[in-house]
Each structure stands twice: as C-alpha cells, then as structure tokens.
Design goal:
alpha+beta; five-stranded antiparallel β-sheet; 2 helices; about 15% helix; globular; binds adenosine monophosphate; binds zinc ion
Amino acid sequence: MSDCLFCKIIAGEIPSTKIYEDDKIYVFADIAPAAPVHYLFIPKEHIQSAAAVTPENSAVVAHIFEKIAEIAKGDEFKDGFRVVSNCGDAAGQTVKHLHFHLLAGREFTWPAG
Ligand code: AMP
Ligand code: ZN
C-alpha cells in the first residue's frame, strides 16, 4: 500500500525507533506515547484492521501475540500491561494498517474510554 504510513515505516521511508523486526512483523515505539512504555506491533503484510483478519492471514496475529508475551517479560511490564487494537473510526483507528498497541508503566482504568 503506497499511501499507508505504516507500510512506509516498514519500508524505511519514514524513520521510526525500532524495537524488534523479523520477516513477518515490525515493532516500534509510538511517536506520541500514551504510557511510559508504548510500542506498536504491525504485520509487514498490509492488513487494514482487526476486521480484515481471515483464516488466510491470521497466523501473523498469533505471531504478534507470541512476540508481545516475549517482550513483556521485561522488567517494565512486571506490574501488568495492556494490548489494544482500535478498529474503525468510532474506535479511534487513525492508521488503517492493523496494529496492536502494547502499553505499560502506569495504572490503566477500565472500561477504556
Ligand atoms: P490508532 O490511533 O489506534 O490508529 O494508532 C495509531 C498510532 O500510531 C497512534 O498511537 C500514533 O501516535 C502512532 N503514530 C502515528 N504516526 C507515527 C509515526 N510516524 N511513528 C510512530 N508512531 C506513529
Ligand atoms: Zn500498510
């Protein structure tokens, strides 16, 4: 997707602070952190949102959650963390490339706003 911000970040056309990368996913720091630790996990394949996950492309979602569990073994996550995927305009999805926010380092309220 040539006009997708996150596809451009994956391609290195827009700079980002890389946390982790492999052949399927890219993990980077959110530019406007909503918590002391705020990472974004994205598939390298352009998938529009959680609503566009199918039996054909869902393996990367499992891979992302395995990597979240691995990264969340770090000390900053010991008191708990939150994983969020906003899907669609009403839910606040501003970038239409599937991503999972990993947030930690503060108390989180529930229900989410
Ligand atoms: P959402 O609002 O759920 O679609 O999440 C998009 C996230 O991308 C927001 O938390 C933004 O702060 C973040 N974001 C936007 N542009 C960049 C960028 N260039 N580098 C890193 N994070 C970004
Ligand atoms: Zn994209």
